[in-house]
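Sanity check

After download, print the first record. It should look like this:
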Amino acid sequence: MVRWDPEKRSPRRWYRWGLLIVSLVGFIWLLVVVRPILLPFILALVLAYLMAPLVDLLARYGLDRAVAILLVYSLVGLVITALVIYMVPVLLQESVRLIKYVPTLAQGVQSTWDYWLTRFHQQPMPPAIRSAITGTGKHLQNRLSTGLKGILHTVFGLVPGVLSVIIAPVLGFYVLKDLDRIRERVWAIVPVDWQGAVYKLGFDIDRALNGYIRGQLMVALVVGVLSALWTFILGIPFAPLIGAVAAVTDVIPYVGPIAGAIPAILLGLTRSPFVSMYAVIGFVVIHQLEGTVISPKVVGESVGLHPLVVIFAIFAGGAIGGFAGLLIGVPAAAVLKVVLAHLYRRLTVPLDHKSAPSVQ
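Expected C-alpha cells:
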C-alpha cells in the first residue's frame, strides 16, 4: 500500500520548482541582453580556470601569488609567441599556396575521372561536366581567397575582438590573484547547511570541465600531429595546413573529424585515386584510435552526455555564438547537466541538513 507523503506532495515543492524555472529563464534572458560585452569576461574566466592549478601549485611552494601569475603568463606568452613566429607564417603561406593550387586540384579531378572512364571503356568526361568542374574550381578559389581575407580582417581589424583579447588577460590576472578571497566570499554567502551540497556541485563541475577542456585540447593536438604526419608520408601537399585544420576541427565532436579529412581526400586526388583512398584509410584509423584509445584515456567519461544531446549542444552553440559557440556548446551542456542533476536531487529528495557535510 502506497503511503501518503505530505512532504513530497507539499505545495512548497511546486513553488520551489516554479522559482527554479523562473530563475533559469531570467538568467538566460540576462545572458542574451549582455551578450555583446560577455566575450572578455568569458575569456578571462576560461584563462583563469586553465591557469589556476599551476598558479596554486607555485603559490604552495612559497612563491608570491602575483609573481606566480606573472610567471605563468610569461610561459604562456612565450609559447604563443613561438607559435605566432613559427607556425602562423607557415599556415598563411600554405593557405595562399592552396588558393593558387585550386585550378590544379580541379584538373586533377578531371584527369582522375577520365582515367577511370577509359579503363572501363567509357567515353571521356562530357564537356558540360568538365566546364562545371572548372567553374566550381574558380568559385572555390574565390571563396577561399575571400575567406582568408575575412579571417585576417576578423583577427586584426575588429576593434572589439582585439580589445577583448587585450582585456581578458588583465581580468584573468585579478581573478587569479583574488581567487582565495573569491572562494571565501562565496562560502560566506552560502548557508552552512548547504555548503556540503555546493562543494559537491563545484567538485562535479570542475571534474567535468577539467576532463573535457584539458583532455580535448591534448587529443586535438595528437590528432593534428598524426594527420599532418600521415599526409606528409603520402606525399599530399599542404601537410602542415591539413594537420592544423584537423586539430582545430577535432574539438568539434562528430563534425570535426569529417571536416578535417575532406581537404586531405581532395588533395590526394591530385596525386592518384589510390593516394586519396589511403588518406581515407589513414584518417579512419586515426579517429578510431582517438575514439577507442586516446580519448578514453585522456578525456574519460567525464562529460557523460547522450550523443543526441551533444549534437543539439553543437548546433545550439553554433547558432548562439558562431564558431566559439561550437567549441563551448558541449562543455556548457555538461555543466548544465551537472547543475540540473544536483537541483533535481535537492528538490525531489528530502535532505537532512544536519547530515550534510559542511566545508569551512
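If your output differs, re-run the checksum step. Summary of this record's structure: Confidence is low (pLDDT under 50) at residues 155-159, 351-360.
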